[in-house]
Description:
Elements: H1 3-14, H2 35-47, E1 50-53, E2 70-73, E3 104-106, H3 113-120, E4 127-128, H4 134-138, H5 141-154, E5 162-166, H6 187-193, E6 198-202, E7 222-224, H7 231-235, E8 240-243, H8 248-253, E9 259-262, H9 266-273, H10 279-282, E10 286-288, H11 291-300, H12 307-315, H13 323-332, H14 340-343
Parallel strand pairs: 1-2, 2-3, 3-4, 5-6, 5-8, 6-7, 8-9, 9-10
Helix pairs in contact: 1-13
Amino acid sequence: MEGNLLRVHQRMIERGLDERFDLRSSFRVPSTTGWGTTARILYLLATSETILLDDYFGLLKTVTIDRRSRVIQVWHAGSGFTSVGYFGSADSPRLSQPHRKYTYAICGSEQLRHVYTEAFGIEESAVIPTGLPWIDWFLDEARTTSFTQRFAAEHPHLQGKRIILFAPRYRGCSYHTASYDYDLIDLDALYDACPPDTVVLFRMHHSVKESIEIPEKYRDRIFDFTRSPDGLGLLHVTDLLITDYFSIIDEFALLDRPMLFFAPDRAVHAAPRRFHRDYEETAPGRVCETLDEVVRAIREGDVQQEKLARFRAENFDRIDTGAADRVIDWLILEDRPVLEAEQR
Length: 344
């Protein structure tokens, strides 16, 4: 359990709601999929008053949920750039599509409700802008202080350095085929772009199985932090983020720090996945198609940070630590205000 699902579960326990509710869980990956786990999930679906999901759940295509039960999708990422569900799909919506079985889905802001409505094929009144529960952790001051102190103790050689974090999305159709073309990265040029007071930390997507190789001559300024256990915490010590199509931008945007977007394969990536909104216009920073452009932007500080304010306003109605409570109060306990879409 992780992300939004874990935060809601954790917050219910913090509030003592595990004494009121029987909190049950089931998780499957291909290696554990079988008749036994399928039977257990069917039993849980049939006997649960409230069902929370954080990703696509194929079984919903073939089962009918009791209409007295609620199915709540607490999607694991922000709205991002690439297609989800029906968004960008050329197919006609099918009534049996799993996304259409949701009673509610959450999103980060009122302005994004239409995005999730189209993506999941559900009514706008079913999309509730609670905010994203994992942001509760990200903005928790005590948690941030604990991480930064621990980071300083574990990496004293990075103290006082300007930290650039390179964190791209994986390439491929799923985690089975996830990869990243390291030939896209010219370590010579990246190293030369960094003065002695600047370091680059690589944090590859956890689905990418092949690690980046960093020759010895670069290891005073370039480091592999892919296995760092706290990816959200790492953002708090980052001065400049370099990414591409990764939803990590949602959290980092809350810090009001600059971003660069290295997307040399933008056209290729868009073809099978389909961007559901204009990439260059939406990205809250300069979009670079070559590493030379990235290097130039690092050296000159030309990151188009003016795009960040608009991105924050579009993606977040609130910047606080109350999203998990809103999911619990509004959707699980069903004590929520009437929203504009329900008044129309």
